C-alpha cells in the first residue's frame, strides 16, 4: 500500500531493507526486491518474547523496514501478533510435594497444594487437576484416595481466582490418626487445555503430624522500656521470655517481629529468633520518631502464635544546636 509518485525518477530499483539494532536477533527477514516477509531461522518463542503478558491478544513483535532509494525513502513499522501454541506442559515446582497435616485436623479442612506452572496462556494454560487412583484400588473414584482399609481420606478441590488462575486444595475427608497411619502417598496430575492436552504428575506425600496443643505464653504481654537516643548499635532493648507446656520440638519457641510493625522499626531494631532478645540495629533519633511499638510473635510451629507488645520510648539527649527563627512585623 505504498503510495509512490510515478513522476519521481528513481536512482535505483525499489528496495526494502529490515532495520534493526546491532546485536538484535531478527525473527523475520524481508526480501529486498519484492518486500515479501518470511520467518527467519531463529525460533519465535512467545513465552520468551512476551514474558509476563498473559493476554492472548497482547503479545506483539515489531520491526521497521526502510523503503529505498532515497527519493522515496520512508520507514514502515510492521507489527506481528504472536499467537500462543501449546508447546509447554504444566509442571509442578517439584516432582515430590510434601504437605504436613496435624492429626486433629477437622473434617473438610482444606490445605493448599503448590500449583503447577504453565507459561502458555488461555486454553493452552492449566485447566484441570486430579488425584490419580492407584491401580491396586480399582473401586476408588477420581478426586479421592483411600487408606489401606478402603476409606476415603482425602479429596481434591479446585478454586479459581478472579484472574482465572486455578489453585488445587487438598480436603480432609476422614478423621486422621497418626498412631494408626502417619503417611499417605498419592499421585497428583495437572493437565492443560491444548489439543492434544499436555500433562505431568507429581508425588503428593501427606505427613500426619503429632498435635501441638499448647501455644507459647509470654511472661509479660505488654512491656515498656526507655532507651536514650544515643545508645550504640547492639545495645539490648528488652529480653522477652516465653514458655511452652509442650515437650520436644513442639516446645521450641521462635520469636519474630509481626509484619504489622512499621518499616522504620524493622530497620532500627532486631530480635534474636531463639532467645527473644531485642537489640538496636541502627542508630536511633528521637526527633525522627520518639516512640516505637514492636509487636513480637512467639511460635512453636502451631498455626496461631502468641503476641506481645514492646513499647520503646526514645529519650532525648542534647544532640541538636538551637536555631534562631527571625520573623518580621510589616505594616500593610
TrEMBL record:
Of the GO CC terms on this record, one is: plasma membrane
Q: This protein is called what?
A: Protocadherin-11 X-linked
UniProt cross-references to PROSITE patterns, sorted A to Z: CADHERIN_1 (PS00232), CADHERIN_2 (PS50268)
Q: Does Plastid appear among the keywords?
A: no
Entry superkingdom: Eukaryota
* One BP annotation, GO: homophilic cell adhesion via plasma membrane adhesion molecules
Keyword Phosphoprotein included in the entry's annotation? no
Entry GO MF terms:
calcium ion binding
Protein keywords? Calcium, Cell adhesion, Cell membrane, Glycoprotein, Membrane, Repeat, Signal, Transmembrane, Transmembrane helix
Query: What organism is listed for this UniProt entry?
Result: Lonchura striata (white-rumped munia)
Domain Cadherin: start-end pairs: 5-92, 93-218, 219-324
**Compartments, as annotated in UniProt:** Cell membrane
Membrane topology recorded in Swiss-Prot or TrEMBL: Single-pass type I membrane protein
| Pfam (any one) | Cadherin
TM stretches of this protein:
none
This protein's gene is called PCDH11X
Q: What is its main location?
A: membrane
Amino acid at each position: 500500500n505504498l503510495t509512490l509518485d510515478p513522476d519521481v525518477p528513481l536512482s535505483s530499483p525499489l528496495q526494502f531493507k529490515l532495520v534493526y539494532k546491532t546485536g538484535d536477533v531478527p525473527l523475520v527477514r524481508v526480501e529486498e526486491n519484492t518486500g515479501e516477509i518470511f520467518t527467519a531461522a531463529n525460533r519465535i518463542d512467545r513465552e520468551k518474547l512476551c514474558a509476563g503478558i498473559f493476554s492472548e491478544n497482547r503479545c506483539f513483535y515489531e520491526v521497521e523496514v526502510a523503503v529505498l532509494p532515497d527519493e522515496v525513502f520512508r520507514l514502515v513499522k510492521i507489527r506481528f501478533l504472536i499467537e500462543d501454541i501449546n508447546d509447554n506442559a504444566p509442571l509442578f515446582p517439584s516432582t515430590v510435594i510434601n504437605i504436613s497435616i496435624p492429626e486433629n485436623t477437622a473434617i473438610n479442612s482444606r490445605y493448599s497444594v503448590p500449583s503447577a506452572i504453565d507459561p502458555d496462556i488461555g486454553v493452552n494454560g492449566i485447566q484441570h487437576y486430579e488425584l490419580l487412583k492407584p491401580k491396586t484400588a480399582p473401586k476408588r473414584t477420581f478426586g479421592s484416595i483411600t487408606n489401606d482399609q478402603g476409606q476415603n481420606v482425602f479429596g481434591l478441590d479446585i478454586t479459581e481466582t478472579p484472574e482465572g488462575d486455578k489453585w488445587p486444595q487438598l480436603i480432609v475427608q476422614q478423621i486422621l490418626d497418626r498412631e494408626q497411619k502417619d503417611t499417605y502417598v498419592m499421585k497428583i496430575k495437572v493437565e492443560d487445555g491444548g489439543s492434544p492436552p499436555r500433562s505431568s504428575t507429581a508425588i503428593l506425600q501427606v505427613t500426619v503430624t503429632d498435635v501441638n496443643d499448647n501455644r507459647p505464653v509470654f511472661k509479660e504481654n505488654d512491656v515498656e522500656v526507655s532507651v536514650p537516643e544515643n545508645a550504640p548499635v547492639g545495645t539490648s532493648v528488652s529480653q522477652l521470655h516465653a514458655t511452652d507446656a509442650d515437650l520436644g520440638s513442639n516446645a521450641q519457641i521462635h520469636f519474630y517481629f509481626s509484619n504489622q510493625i512499621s518499616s522504620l522499626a524493622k530497620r532500627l531494631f532486631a530480635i534474636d529468633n531463639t532467645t527473644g532478645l531485642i537489640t538496636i540495629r541502627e542508630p536511633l533519633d528521637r526527633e525522627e520518631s520518639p516512640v516505637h511499638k514492636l509487636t513480637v510473635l512467639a511460635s512453636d510451629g502451631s498455626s496461631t502464635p502468641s503476641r506481645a507488645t514492646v513499647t520503646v520510648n526514645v529519650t532525648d539527649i542534647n544532640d541538636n544546636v538551637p536555631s534562631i527563627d527571625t520573623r518580621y512585623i510589616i505594616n500593610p
